[in-house]
Amino acid sequence: xxxxxxxxxxxxxxxxxxxxxxxxxxxxxxxxxxxxxxxxxxxxxxxxxxxxxxxxxxxxxxxxxxxxxxxxxxxxxxxxxxxxxxxxxxxxxxxxxxxxxxxxxxxxxxxxxxxxxxxxxxxxxxxxxxxxxxxxxxxxxxxxxxxxxxxxxxxxxxxxxxxxxxxxxxxxxxxxxxxxxxxxxxxxx
Length: 189
Ligand code: ZN
Known about the structure:
Elements: H1 26-41, E1 46-48, E2 58-61, H2 64-70, E3 78-97, E4 107-120, E5 126-132, H3 133-146, H4 157-162, H5 164-171
Antiparallel strand pairs: 1-2, 2-3, 3-4, 4-5
């Protein structure tokens, strides 16, 4: 198991649609283990495969610590393969979100409070989960990553503009980041 460098804003891999995973393999299992290591190493609550440069529809998450604060459900560490959100409902709730690919940037994002998600677990068994609270938020955020969507895309133009200089710092490789990241290409500097 190993900690992998995280791809940061605004690398184009974060903007691409990831491919479904159709077959279990040792390689897929190792990828999932490495994604958990990488997520925990950076104190994250979720990490999607495109964030380590793999365009595959897989994410890992562990939102139990945040759920405790919000009295949400406790799920333990979860890997979801080919997740599909089949229902979004309840009130639109605003909560502060961050992202390991956009370090140091937080913003309040409105999302439906309740979802149903179908997915394959890491043993490739079909699962369906109805969930709300922090977990529902994390699952929506991570599923967005698989479609090239970042939480910034849910913000108003005005709010996004306010974050502009911080985003530029990250995009240009000038941000101070406490975990391994993929270095920016020289021509982007
Ligand atoms: Zn993210």
